[in-house]
């Protein structure tokens, strides 16, 4: 029997991808046990009916054939205008590649940036698919740990120490899983390392509309960084269009042209009626995006208020995104053990910090993705459970 490619079989290094608690929770639900899920970044609202109506009109109007591979001209222009308005960086449609979601954009960007067998750097904690994505393009995935005591802000000196022989660095701000937004000082240090070592910077900015405190700065806006930065964007989080699978890459025109060639040989683009729906959604403007983000801002405020009333659970500064990262080290348990026990005893499912790397050990990630009342009740129960373990 032929063997499978090691590129595929080593995607998660033959081990766990960190989602066992989530899968256990889903199995319990399938067997009839109610579970409060605070695991994945899925909105508790569905895609807005007006967006679905635009998609329906487009599809019924005939936009169901092959669409232009880099993306329809109007959508590329809309994304370019949006990026230029938000960042101040001159951006043209030729700087934009429309992709089947942010995950596809991450894969294509790393295939563009990373010669086979070369190091690709990423920061720990990380979104669960990052290391597998890097291995999937044939790169050597190298994590660089950030520290809870530093608020999970990356240290440029740590990145610099790993940068020799690397082709790229992947960052994510606002960050999943921590909710941290990287400061200008942090990003300037990262930019200096990228220029010194001639690295591509791949910046995952899918949470750029979910900013609760401070400001999001795209590193593409820093001096001399536009020529070496590939920015990942997506409609999933900003417009609750997770299932529509539509995102983009913004980068230098030459890189985008080559990535478009890749799409011709892989995805062959994104359905035209989905692109038309995304165009409609983007044209609804910042007010619409703020409406989609509002529930998570409320629940973040709820989180802060609830955690003020106890001393055992520590909140990592949650300045953006739809998650909070909680330090539960006072229990003496790993994040994985705590999450499993919480699921067994209270039927509340959270993600262990260890699902996102070694740096988040002793933490859990809580997705703020259920209605306010049930979210507050679950968080209070979690805090009470932590207190019981600390007695």
Q: Pairing-aware structural class of the strands and helices?
A: alpha/beta
- N- to C-terminal distance: 57 Å
- What is the number of domains? 2
CATH superfamily of the largest domain: Type I PLP-dependent aspartate aminotransferase-like (Major domain)
Largest sheet: 7 strands, mixed
Helix residue percentage: 40-55%
Question: How is the largest sheet built, in terms of strand order?
Answer: 2-8-7-6-5-3-4
User: Order of helices and strands, N to C?
Assistant: HHEHHEHEHEHEHEEHEHHHEEHEEH
Rg calc: 21 Å
What is the CATH class designation of the largest domain? Alpha Beta
Q: For the residues shown, what is the average pLDDT?
A: 96
Please, how many helices? 14
Tell how many strands the DSSP assignment holds. Answer: 12
Which helices and strands appear, and what pairs or packs with what?
Elements: H1 6-9, H2 20-30, E1 36-38, H3 49-60, H4 73-87, E2 96-99, H5 102-113, E3 119-124, H6 130-136, E4 140-145, H7 156-162, E5 166-172, H8 184-197, E6 200-204, E7 229-234, H9 235-238, E8 247-250, H10 253-264, H11 272-283, H12 286-308, E9 314-315, E10 323-327, H13 335-346, E11 348-352, E12 363-367, H14 372-390
Parallel strand pairs: 1-11, 3-4, 3-5, 5-6, 6-7
Antiparallel strand pairs: 2-8, 7-8, 9-10, 10-12, 11-12
Helix pairs in contact: 3-11, 4-11, 5-6, 7-8, 12-14
Organism: Planktotalea frisia
Protein name: Aminotransferase
Catalytic activity: L-aspartate + 2-oxoglutarate = oxaloacetate + L-glutamate
């Amino acid at each position: 029997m032929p063997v499978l490619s090691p590129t595929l079989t080593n995607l998660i290094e033959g081990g766990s991808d960190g989602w066992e608690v989530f899968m256990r929770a889903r199995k319990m639900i399938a067997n009839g046990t109610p579970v409060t899920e605070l695991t994945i970044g899925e909105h508790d609202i569905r895609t807005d009916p007006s967006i679905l109506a635009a998609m329906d009109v487009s599809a019924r109007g005939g936009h169901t054939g092959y669409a232009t591979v880099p993306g329809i001209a109007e959508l590329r222009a809309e994304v370019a205008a949006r990026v230029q308005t938000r960042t101040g960086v001159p951006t043209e449609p030729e700087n934009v590649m429309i992709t089947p979601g942010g995950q596809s954009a991450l894969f294509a960007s790393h295939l563009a940036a990373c010669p086979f067998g070369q190091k690709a750097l990423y920061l720990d904690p990380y979104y669960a698919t990052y290391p597998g994505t890097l291995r999937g393009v044939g790169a050597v995935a190298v994590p660089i740990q950030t520290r809870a005591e530093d608020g999970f802000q990356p240290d440029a000196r740590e990145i610099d120490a790993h940068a020799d022989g690397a082709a790229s660095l992947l960052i994510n701000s606002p960050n999943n899983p921590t909710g941290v937004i990287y400061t200008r000082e942090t990003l300037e240090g990262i930019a200096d390392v990228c220029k010194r070592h001639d690295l591509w910077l791949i910046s995952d900015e899918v949470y750029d509309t979910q900013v609760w405190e401070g400001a999001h700065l795209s590193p593409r806006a820093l001096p001399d960084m536009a020529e070496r930065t590939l920015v990942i964007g997506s409609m999933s989080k900003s417009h609750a269009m997770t299932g529509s699978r539509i995102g983009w890459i913004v980068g230098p025109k030459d890189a985008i042209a080559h990535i478009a060639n890749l799409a011709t040989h892989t995805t062959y683009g994104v359905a035209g009626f989905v692109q038309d729906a995304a165009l409609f959604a983007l044209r609804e403007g910042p007010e619409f995006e703020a409406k989609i983000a509002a529930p998570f801002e409320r629940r973040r405020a709820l989180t802060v208020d609830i955690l003020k009333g106890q001393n055992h659970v520590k909140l990592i500064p949650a300045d953006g995104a739809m998650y909070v990262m909680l330090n539960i080290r006072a229990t003496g348990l790993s994040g994985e053990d705590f999450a499993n026990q919480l699921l067994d005893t209270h039927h509340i499912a959270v993600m262990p910090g260890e699902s996102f790397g070694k740096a988040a050990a002793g933490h859990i990630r809580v997705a703020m993705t259920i209605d306010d009342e049930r979210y507050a009740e679950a968080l209070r129960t979690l805090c009470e459970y932590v207190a019981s373990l600390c007695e």
